[in-house]
From TrEMBL:
GO terms for biological process: proton motive force-driven plasma membrane ATP synthesis. Gene3D superfamilies: 3.40.1380.10, ATP synthase, gamma subunit, helix hairpin domain (1.10.287.80). It comes from the Bacteria. Produces ATP from ADP in the presence of a proton gradient across the membrane. The gamma chain is believed to be important in regulating ATPase activity and the flow of protons through the CF(0) complex. Keywords: ATP synthesis, Cell membrane, CF(1), Hydrogen ion transport, Ion transport, Membrane, Transport. F-type ATPases have 2 components, CF(1) - the catalytic core - and CF(0) - the membrane proton channel. CF(1) has five subunits: alpha(3), beta(3), gamma(1), delta(1), epsilon(1). CF(0) has three main subunits: a, b and c. Signal peptide: none annotated. This is ATP synthase gamma chain. It comes from Capnocytophaga leadbetteri. InterPro entries: ATP_synth_F1_ATPase_gsu (IPR035968), ATP_synth_F1_gsu (IPR000131). GO terms for cellular component: plasma membrane; proton-transporting ATP synthase complex. The gene is atpG.
Length: 284
């Protein structure tokens, strides 16, 4: 059995850990509220805009450079959206695992490369020698302008023929305790399949060209911005949950150590009493 000094030291160490995990839980809870409000407000708009985008793509056909190309898909870019910090459970590991799984199964016959957003995903995936580029700073200041710049870079890689498909992999936000691992095709835009008899003939105002050059790119930027916000909210939820569990586990460990300390202290006192009684009897 460890001596009393060692047990007291461990109890002190566990107490310090509880204070840290408790503080991190409170910080994540505060950040989660803001991130949750942002993604809840944004999702309906992004969803409707995506629906409009798919219907427009069907109507524009080959005039839309963001539609699927003829021929088989040969080159795929997997965009892994993780976080810059850890201590959030399996949040980052799930994305990395999914990206590698897609490369080895769904796209095993394709030429696959990775684009990492977030330091944690990049640290792991760069060991595979498939990381084309990474952006670890966008979460430092997540604005629509920064997301739009990143989306433009991805759109350019598609329109210039560098890749035939671009897929986003990230954790979607459901609630504070639940994150949904999401695989979402960013490009090409998947047109809505409709019956030719019920095809709508659209009147375009402004021109079709204006829609292709302005509305569709903006919709794609919004889609990426939504995915980033989704990931941020999910990250704070995952970290809050992880720190809550860590605090509870630390409390359980502290209780066990206190019980062990009391038993050791009782054994020490009992031993000292026996020695005193034995010494007294020897003298008498």
């Amino acid at each position: 059995m460890a001596n009393l000094k060692e047990i007291r030291s461990r109890i002190s160490s566990v107490s310090s850990t509880m204070q840290i995990t408790g503080a991190m839980k409170m910080v994540s809870a505060a950040k989660l509220k803001k991130a949750q409000d942002a993604i809840i407000a944004m999702k309906p708009y992004a969803y409707k805009l995506k629906q409009l985008l798919e219907h427009l793509s069907s109507a524009l056909g080959s005039e839309n450079v963001y539609n699927p190309r003829k021929g088989a898909v040969k080159r795929v870019l997997l965009v892994a959206i993780t976080s810059n910090r850890g201590l959030c459970g399996a949040f980052n590991a799930n994305v990395v695992k999914k990206v590698i799984e897609l490369a080895q199964t769904t796209y095993k016959d394709k030429e696959v490369q990775y684009y990492t957003i977030g330091k944690k995903g990049n640290d792991v995936l760069k060991k595979t020698d498939k990381v084309l580029d990474n952006n670890n700073h966008i979460f430092d200041k997540l604005t629509f302008a920064n997301a739009a710049s990143l989306a433009e870079a991805l759109m350019t890689r598609y329109t210039n023929g560098e890749f035939d498909q671009i897929v986003l992999v990230y954790n979607g936000f459901k609630n504070a305790a639940t994150q949904i691992l999401t695989e979402e095709t960013f490009l090409p835009i998947q047109p809505v399949v409709t019956d030719k008899k019920t095809t709508t003939d659209y009147l375009y105002e402004p021109s079709k060209q204006e829609i292709v050059t302005q509305l569709i790119p903006r919709s794609l930027k919004t889609q990426l911005f939504k995915a980033l916000h989704d990931s941020v909210a999910a990250e704070h939820g995952a970290r809050m949950t992880a720190m809550h569990k860590a605090t509870d586990n630390a409390q359980d460990l502290k209780n066990e150590l206190i019980l062990t300390y009391n038993k050791a202290r009782q054994a020490t006192i009992t031993g000292e009493i026996i020695e005193i009684v034995g010494g007294s009897e020897a003298l008498s």
